[in-house]
Write a structure and sequence with these properties.
The protein has a single domain, classed as Spore Coat Polysaccharide Biosynthesis Protein SpsA, Chain A. It starts with 9 loop residues before the first strand and ends with a helix. The protein has 7 helices and 12 strands. It binds cytidine-5'-triphosphate and magnesium ion.
Length: 253
């Protein structure tokens, strides 16, 4: 679906509208700090550091005060001048939040990265690799890593009760996917239009590439990075602080 004659302009959409229930009580997850700086600011910087990204759309928690707070934080923190930043309110599910971000993109954008605010420490090399693979013609690109743990498929039971194992997929064929995921914009828009009705209730899609797969479009995986992990539970905050401390000790971050 990419047209060789059109210039590529890449934007990043950062869904940051989640509450962070699994992280425990406190501010919305994207506004929690790491090394004194809100996770969202780390995530915006991670996208803006890529020279290919000229626009970042932040999808903020939908209540008015959080959206105002996000704008204030973006004004307060240093970000590259060449990067344009927009803030839009999110939705009930991640899928709706991504859709709100896509709807805010100007007409000249041809490719888009979708990046979780909850993955604040993704290195710029990973971002650049995703952009490059999209520019080389892949309609959907996902950074991912092999799994450390063996995975069992179970028949889910009541919490705490033993669950029967249904299958053990071959670990060598499995990958844990990360963000930013990169897309030809027309392809991702089509996925959202076609699949919108299926997601009327429940959690919606938690993986953008999964929606494109449902169109029958080939999604490719490229190597992810261990520092692109998602901050989900309290222990992840400990790891994120340790990664930042190591960066500060070893380079001029
Ligand atoms: N997200 C969003 N809008 C939602 C739900 C999630 O923009 N309605 C974003 C989150 O802000 C996060 C990313 O999607 O950056 C990945 O979601 P997840 O890690 O699940 O974050 P939360 O939904 O905030 O956390 P939890 O599921 O523990 O509540
Ligand atoms: Mg969630």
């Amino acid at each position: 679906m990419s047209d060789e004659s059109r210039p590529h302009r890449t934007a990043a959409v950062i869904p940051a509208a989640g509450r962070g229930v699994r992280l425990g009580p406190g501010a919305p997850k994207a506004l929690r700090t790491l090394g004194g700086t809100p996770m969202l600011i780390h995530a915006v910087r991670a996208m803006a550091r890529s020279r290919a990204v000229s626009l970042v759309v932040v999808v903020a928690p939908p209540d008015g005060t959080a959206t105002t707070e996000v704008r204030r934080l973006l004004d307060e923190h240093a970000l590259p001048e060449r990067t344009e930043i927009l803030v839009v309110p999110g939705g009930e599910t991640r899928q709706e939040s991504v859709r709100a971000g896509l709807d805010a993109l100007p007409a000249d954008i041809t490719a888009v990265l979708i990046h979780d605010a909850a993955r604040p420490l993704v290195p710029v090399d990973t971002v650049d690799s995703v952009v490059e693979a999209v520019r080389d013609g892949a309609p959907a690109v996902v950074p991912a890593l092999p799994l450390a743990d063996t995975v069992k498929e179970v028949e889910p039971g009541r919490p705490g009760e033993p669950e029967p194992v249904v299958a053990t997929p071959v670990r060598a064929r499995l990958r844990a996917v990360q963000t930013p995921q990169g897309f030809d914009l027309a392809t991702l828009r089509l996925a959202h239009e076609k699949l919108a009705r299926l997601s009327g209730d429940g959690e919606g899609a938690t993986d953008d590439a999964g929606m494109v797969e449902q169109l029958g479009v080939t999604v490719v995986v490229i190597p992810g990075h261990e520092e692109a992990f998602k901050v989900t539970r309290p222990l992840d905050l400990v790891l994120a602080e340790a990664v930042l401390a190591r960066r500060r000790a070893t380079d001029a971050y």
